[in-house]
Amino acid sequence: MLDDKSTDIAATEQASESSTSPETSRTDPCAIVIFGAGGDLTKRLLVPALYNLSRTNVLPENLALIGVDLADETVEAWRDHLYEMLQSFVKNGAAEFDINQIDTAAWKRLADRMSYVQGDLTKPELYEKLRGALAAAEKTHGTQGNAIFYLAVDGRLFCTIVEQLDKADLVTEEDNGEHRFWRRVVVEKPFGFSLDSARQLNVRLLRILREDQIFRIDHFLGKDTVQSIMAFRFANGLFEPIWNRDRIDHVQITVAETVGVEQRGKFYEATGALRDMVPNHVFTLLSMVAMEPPTGFDADAIRSKKAELFAAMPSVQPELAVRGQYGAGTVLGKPVKAYRDEPDVAPDSNVETYVAMKLKIDNWRWAGVPFYFRTGKHLSRRNTEIAIRFKPAPYGTFHGTPVDALPPNWLVLRIAPDEGISLQFEVKRRGSEVDLAAVKMDFRYDDWFPREANVGYETLINDVMMGDSTLFMSADMVEAAWRIVQPVLDAWAAEKAPFPDYASGSDGPAAADTLLARDGQRAWRPVHPKAERKS
Predict the structure, then answer these.
(1) What is the pLDDT of residues 125-143, one digit of tens each?
(2) Quick check: is 341 in a domain?
(3) Per annotation, catalytic residue among 81, 281, 378, 399
(4) Is-catalytic flag, 378?
(5) How much is the mean pLDDT over the chain?
(6) Torsion, Cα of 448, 450, 454, 457 (10° steps)
(7) What is the DSSP string of 19-50?
(8) In total, how many domains does the chain have?
(9) Residue 349, in any domain of the structure
(10) Residue 346: which CATH number?
(11) pTM of the entire structure?
(12) Of 168, 188, 208, which marks where a domain is finished?
């Protein structure tokens, strides 16, 4: 007889098998057009995600993949470059694939549907060629006129591409004689570089497209552990009643990376850690943990609750924000150089690679509960987590015992890399004395569920094909996110910072510790989970 855990796993595997069957999961026929076909995003994430979807039989049978780029190469050369990148992932044992060799049948299904269009993304001639490629795809692969235009390019080209698509009449949805075909546009982050630019971008796109045609993508929401936050909160009667200002002291959100800027110096010099991470990734995690319960799990219900949350957040004052830039140091046992010594970075750069902030939410649930977040590069360990600290119990019960003070209870939602959930609480040690110890109940996804190949884009790409915008930001959410951080951006632009101010391999600048310390006895949890103090 199976125990509860084995029964759950068996049920999970059965559900997984049924969810990937061609009869139940495949979406409408369509063509996926990737602008920026030769870029890192396409090679490292988009095509690997499509390959994973091919492996699990989720892609529609009638699919075409059209690459668009300035580089003058053949479809064979483009396909070979993509395959070489995929081979390198598999050879290096990337956990996102969980295989030791390429599934040649799955790759062939994808590769046979590839074509390539070369041209300048700003010129009308390219879009006439694209029109021909879409017509050919419809004839050869039966895409039925449906198309996704994925803008895997610099944000400054978003409006140009959409306006050229409009002039070429490629985003108009209409009947083709048999059915009404659809056209959708996927926009990568960052969505704008400030509140004004985000507003202008929304205005220009919405002159051409309907809101339900625009998918503003953030791959963080493609992670199972992020999506599971809502299930954890709203599917368990145990936690939601204490998810409020009466029981919670504060919340810490950490998105720590060990990597530096690598070869992205030009991008990072124009962007920085705040623009790159906060209005999208960090606020994604914040919205999942702080939003009110939705009336349902449809796109409108969830997005409206997230929008309400952002509307309740006042703009951050500069004194509640800390920035930093990494210097030379040692990360994971290897010496690394300072940010200012990276390729394509100015020797006197004033760009931050670390951000910490204190956020407030002025609503009934969260009034008075601070939300602290930090994100940075070249930190001591890779770690993304949401840590909820509950208010301590009164000390009176243990007055006169060896217990000096009661440690706080922590609920930690680990997003990556060690996905899971832990709860820290106090128990009495064995023995005649009343002596307490902090212990943990720890759930790890890998202990319960089989690992699935996932680079973070699979669910989101599939949602775009289905037209489900639940996991995507709306125009008002984007503008609200920029409004919250805009005063900090303005203040930092006007002043020179004493950079670098933290060593690579550390937990960040000392000023981030001060941000919490001045609120009383609060302190950051260690970036490295194994460094936590044990009572």
Answers:
(1) 999 999 999 999 999 999 9
(2) yes
(3) 281
(4) no
(5) 88
(6) -60
(7) HT-HHHH----EEEEEESTTSHHIIIIIHHHH
(8) 2
(9) yes
(10) 3.30.360.10
(11) 0.88
(12) 188
